Amino acid sequence: MLRTSRTGYTMIEVVLVMLVMGIMAAAAAPRYSRMVSRFRVEAAARRIVADLSQVRARAMTIGAAAGEEVSFYSATDRYQMRGDPDPNHPNREYWVEFSKTAYPVDLVSATFTNIEGDTSSELVRYNMYGSPESGSSAAVPLASGEIVVASGGQLRTVVINSVTGKASVQ
Question: Would 109 be classed as within a structural domain?
Fold first, then answer.
C-alpha cells in the first residue's frame, strides 16, 4: 500500500515555536522599554536646547532691552517661549506640552539661580547680548540654570552656561 506524505507541522511543533517566541519577547521587553525611555528623554532634552538657542538668537537679533523669556511649568510638563510665535500657528505663542509630543516625558524641575542667590523655578530670560538672566523683578545675571526631564527611570539635565548662555545636555 502506498503512503502519501503529508506536509505541515504538528501541534507540538507549533506550540514549541510559540513558547520559544514568547520567552524571547519576554526577555526583550524590558530592554525595549529602557530604550524607548532613553529616546524620549534625549529627544525632549535636545528640543529644550534647540528652543533655548532659538530664544537666545532671537534676543540678540531683536536687541530689545527687555529680552526674550522662557517660562517652565513642571507641574503641567510644559514650557512657553514668551513672545515667540508658534511655527504651526503664527497667531499663537509658542508652547511645548510634552504630553502632546512624540516623546512624552515629565518635566521634573527647572531651576535658575542668579548671582544674588535668588532662585526661580520657572523663568529664564536672555538679554540683547545673549546672556542669561533670572529674577522676578530686575534682570540679574544667571549663576546657574538647569532643566531636568525624566521618563521611565531615565533622566537628562539641560544646563545653561552662565557666561555664554548656551544650553547643553548633560
Answer: yes
Residue 1, in any domain of the structure: no
Range of the domain at 17: 11-169
pLDDT digits 0-9 by tens, 122-132: 889 999 999 99
Q: Is 55 exposed, middle or buried (0-12, 13-18, 19+ CB in 10 A)?
A: buried
Q: CATH number of the domain at 152, please.
A: 3.55.40.10
Q: 75, exposed or middle or buried, with CB in 10 Å at 0-12, 13-18, 19+?
A: exposed
Give the residue ranges of the chain where pLDDT is below 50: none
Handedness of CA 38, 40, 41, 43 (dihedral sign): positive
Tell me, yes or no, whether 56 lies in a domain. Answer: yes
pTM for this prediction: 0.82
Report the number of secondary-structure helices (H) and strands (E) in the chain.
1, 10
Would 3 be classed as within a structural domain? no
Structure-block grid coordinates of residue 51: 528652543
Query: Residue 42, class by beta-carbon neighbours within 10 Å (0-12 exposed, 13-18 middle, 19+ buried)?
Result: middle
